[in-house]
Design a protein that fits this description.
Elements (H helix, E strand, L loop, with lengths): L4 E4 L5 H10 L3 E5 L13 H4 L8 E6 L4 H8 L6 E4 L5 H4 L6 E7 L6 H5 L6 E6 L14 H9 L5 E3 L8 H8 L3 E4 L4 E3 L2 E2 L1 H14 L2
Parallel strand pairs: 1-2, 1-8, 2-3, 3-4, 4-5, 5-6, 6-7, 7-8
Antiparallel strand pairs: 9-10
């Protein structure tokens, strides 16, 4: 069984990025969506990543961006993976010559197969909770039985998000067995300010199942 892939999203501070690297997380998420309370700019990126280990992948998150917005971030040379969290078509997501993660927003029933199949070029599929007003980071959980069925029905790397926290991550990994997990608000004091004790506990509980 492969080691669980862990991503912590919504990083805004260099000290948080450095701490996550020491914890051994696989990736950190950096949000380039101006309506998010965790948004950062390209100018902040070098400082946030200045002490980050090369072993940690950097993921740039966008919501229905323009091509120029994505290219501006890629031109920094500091982003390893793109994450698209809106309604971006596959052709757009795959056009940047960069591995990408596509978020699938799950409501109260199984997404249609074609919704999943059309992003077969994605390095990761991320399952997050559907929210009419927010694109992510709500802390809301969806029906995990749907995630389990999706994971069992695809060969793609499926990352579970939506409502995860230190108290439920062990159960989530044991019951669903995703390729990876992604958390933001579940380990925060406030949007963009990580609670490092919660982060430590989250990683410890997740790794206790698949280290």
């Amino acid at each position: 069984m492969t080691q669980l892939w862990i991503k912590i999203c919504g990083i805004t501070k260099s000290e948080d990025a450095s701490y996550l690297a020491k914890l051994g997380v696989d990736a950190i998420g950096l949000i380039f969506y101006r309506h998010s309370p965790r948004a950062i700019s390209c100018k902040q990126l070098p400082e946030i990543l200045e002490n980050l280990s090369d072993s940690v992948k950097t993921v740039g998150l966008f919501v229905d961006p323009s091509r120029s917005e994505v290219n501006e971030v890629l031109d920094t040379g500091l982003i390893d993976i793109l994450q698209f969290h809106g309604s971006e078509p596959e052709g757009f997501c795959s056009s940047f010559d960069k591995p990408y993660m596509k978020a699938i927003h799950v409501k109260d029933k199984m997404p249609q197969a074609e919704v999943l199949d059309k992003y077969s070029s994605a390095k990761f599929l991320l399952l997050d909770t559907y929210n009419e007003k927010e694109s992510g980071g709500t802390g809301e959980k969806f029906d995990w039985s749907i995630a389990k069925r999706i994971i069992e029905g695809t060969d793609q790397r499926v990352v579970l998000a939506g409502g995860l926290n230190p108290a439920n991550i062990e159960d989530a990994v044991r019951s669903i067995n995703p390729f990876g997990v992604d958390v933001s608000s579940g380990v925060e004091l406030s949007p963009g300010q990580k609670d490092l004790k919660k982060v430590w506990r989250f990683v410890r509980e997740a790794r206790s199942v698949r280290s």
